[in-house]
Amino acid sequence: MTLTNAQRLERLKVRTLELEFWRARKTIAVDGWRFNDAPIALGADWPEKTGTQHFAADIAVPDGWPLDTVRLCLDLGGESLIRIEAADGTAKSFGLDPNHREFPVPSRQFRLTSDTVARLPFGEPVRHPKLTRAELVWIEEDVDALWLLLRQVAEAVETLEGHDVVPHLLQASEETIRMLDWPSATADYIARTAAAPMQQKIWQLPTLKPDPEGLNEAQRESVAKAYQSLMDKLAGLRERFPPQGKVALTGHAHIDLAWLWPYDETRRKVRRTFHTALSLMEGSKDFRFNQSTAHYYAQLEEDDPALLEKVVERVKAGQWETLGGTWIEPDTNMPTGESLSRQILYGQRYFEKISGIRHTICWLPDCFGFSGALPQLLVQGGMKSFFTIKVNWSESNHIPSDLFWWEGFDGSRVLAHTFDNPVDGYNGQVRPDTIASTWRNFRQKDRHDTTLLCVGYGDGGGGVSPEMIRREEQLRVFPALPEAQWTRVEDFFENAHEAATARKMSVWKGEIYLELHRGTLTSQSDVKRLHRKAERSLITAETVASLAHLLGAERSTSMEPEWRVVLKNEFHDILPGSSIAEVYVDARRELEAVIEQGKAAQTAGLERLLAELPEGGDGHILVVNPSLDSRPLRLELADGFISAEGTIPPLAAVVLPASSLAPLHGLSASERHLENAFIRVKLAEDGSIASILHKESGREAVEGGANRLFAYPCDKPRNWDAWDVEEDYAEQAEEITGFDSIELIEKGPHRAAIRIRRSWRHSSIVQTLSLAANARRVEIHTELDWHDRRVLLRTETGVAVQAARAVCECAYGVVERPTHTNTSWDEAMFEAPGHRFIDLSDPDFGLALLNDAKYGHSARGNVLGLSLLRSPVYPDPLADEGYQAFTYALMPHAGPWHAGGVREEAEDLNQPLLAISAEGYQTGTWQPLAVEGITAALSALKSSEDGDDLILRVYEPAGRQGALTVKPTEGWRHEGPVTILEEPMTGPSATGLKPFEVKSWRLSKN
């Protein structure tokens, strides 16, 4: 009778399963446990499960058991860091989790202690934690090896279905099993196999022998011979059916800095994972492991400096790669360009400090889309390669290459690689199916002979297991499968660069938009607002302090500690809003503290600056402009709002007399209109905006109503509740047209304002529409008291222009968005990231929607949309519940956005002018630093990381180019451009700025 290959494979799996039950030669339970210093019996419930618990036991290995084949098998009831102290006092630590439960023993007598939490790797609580398992097991190593090898053969047969090698693999495994001399004594056999699925289905098993016999010496010898025979057969088949392709394996553990667990748990996860990786390196010289995120190593300096020292030793030995070059693995859609620069600056500097290594690879496997500003920053930060796999998560369209040049907005290029592992993504396994399918999906086989594959349990950490190490060793002799070997990621990319030099690679220009997880642009919007304000608070504080230093004040201290807090909270599951509530308790506290620290530093900087100015005049107030744009004189003072004539020059300190604060004339208001010299705003009956007239051009900016509020109560994605917005969300829309009251609450002379109160279901919306006397924008300050779940709240504005594309601000520039759905790519971009503005313009006129806290935008037809709030229920059931406030604004303008001053108005909305009292000082203007030529935007003016210098960083924001000259005040100089790492930059002109170019200068005293 001839069986099919499928039938033979099924038989192989059944017969292989039998080996598992003879893997242990002997087993004994470990008793004498203590839980927080109190006795606890094996199998007992934890007396306490909140927080970190501590187990301890003194353990003895039976006489006659060889230590090198004994394993301690544990399940303490949760994740643990265990410490095993040998009889001589030496100790090693290991991570204990569901994927790492067997550990070597160091001596006949040893002590075990633990730090244990009642949680599983993905944060799930263990509802009823028990001391489930504690055993010493004498392993039959040959049985263990053969059991794994036969499983890998079966997996290879499944993976290679239809390949000519399949019947040969089946025959080799069948011959191997026939070589075994296997036990059959009834009592021993039934007891040994009682846990098998087939046996567990029996109505009632017979009484089981308590200590069943294992293999005898002859049987063990048959196993060893069978194993070697199968290895030899596989090696022979490899000659006949050589490997197809190459897969570079890198061990890693993707550890989310915070996600389904709070940050304090991450600190423990890092230690557990790192100890595990180090233990594997002791047993395998070939094993290679990578771990990104400078922040993790910095926290080890505090938590476990001895562990960090061991890691650094392995880094210097070449086994451990501290990849990435960034402080953490950040979201790149929402941070400012300066934040992205600081991620690289502080990341690279820290890695160089601890290991002497500057990284060349940006490692961001799990971020939700990538800003087109990144390639330029990576190049300036010393990185020439980029890795992610997230682009493969797009649901509609896919970037057509896995190995390609990624070209940024400015033309800078890095070599990008992504792999498509359909089994476990970036948390890959060392298995035939993972290796073969990853190679099969690699689309640049004609350009490069190798693809990368990172393996190891991740997200919740854990990393590579001992079985993965053994699997790789066995797979070296397998036929037909791709060749898979441990490789340094740096070596993989060096070879890829050689291939890219020899062969033409495709180019992807601009941002990498992820067609998924669009809801992360809005979820937990209150934290997004705090993050925006924290960024701006630090940038402004540094700018003011630097202006003071240029005028003669002492150099200010570095704000790197505060920046590190901001950068930490840019992690790709914190800022996007996809974490549990506890994460956001920490994030709010930390970001609020940074905002206050930044404000305090701003005040101190203003005072130091004022101290450098001459006294003895009729000065009333010092006003500082912390941007590169001239600003209208508009101030929010303790005794009221000021909107006056005149402007404040860029990077200038101006002492004004009280007489200069008189309001600009022409402001008028009623309950249904606001008007000044520049615009006239009319409200519709329902409180939305019916008209915005741009007086200079005479054009109406609104068509179809502006600031129309819509609630979408069917914001219920298929998966990933906090992450996703479905494309059909708008099919069920409720326009919020009712209102509780409309009243004029302020009528000048500096500002006029109308307040509109609305209710929707269980929530309330209060909007204050205000117009300053000298303003070109109408502001809409919004206060929400939200108590409805799974709803998306948006504002939509119809613009009286027709344009195929809208313009969104992004990090260090702008990106165009389609207003149509001509292609599947256009259709998929129904919600996309933008920073401080989105604009819709024809060549002569347009309207911009500005904001101080939001990121989710849409542009369809002539309608601009801004997502204001989402209220998902997973993983935080109360996301955005309660009160929050923010401001957005509408600004009509003549000409295209960059000619109409849109970015400048958005800058003013997000960072108003600064002011303090200057009674008794001379009036005048002091401008210690001038930037002349093409319009540029300020990224930073800060103290240098080394020395007593300052760093000026600007960028071209609109895609233009021209001459640019930097002129510091007398007594200061610059000697040409520097990189974002603050090192001399060769190549670029010192007196010009190219489209979207980021350029920095070191300013030094003469």
From TrEMBL:
SMART domains: Alpha-mann_mid (SM00872). It is an enzyme of class 3 (hydrolase). GO terms for biological process: mannose metabolic process; oligosaccharide catabolic process. The keyword Hydrolase applies. One of its GO terms (molecular function) is metal ion binding. CDD domains: GH38N_AMII_ER_cytosolic (cd10789). Pfam families: Alpha-mann_mid, Glyco_hydro38C2, Glyco_hydro_38C, Glyco_hydro_38N. Its EC number is 3.2.1.24. Residues 515-591 form the Glycoside hydrolase family 38 central domain. InterPro entries: Gal_mutarotase_sf_dom, GH38_C, Glyco_hydro/deAcase_b/a-brl, Glyco_hydro_38_C, Glyco_hydro_38_cen, Glyco_hydro_38_cen_sf, Glyco_hydro_38_N, Glyco_hydro_38_N_sf. Keywords: Glycosidase, Hydrolase, Metal-binding. Belongs to the glycosyl hydrolase 38 family. This is Alpha-mannosidase. It comes from Allorhizobium taibaishanense. The lineage of its organism: Bacteria, Pseudomonadati, Pseudomonadota, Alphaproteobacteria, Hyphomicrobiales.
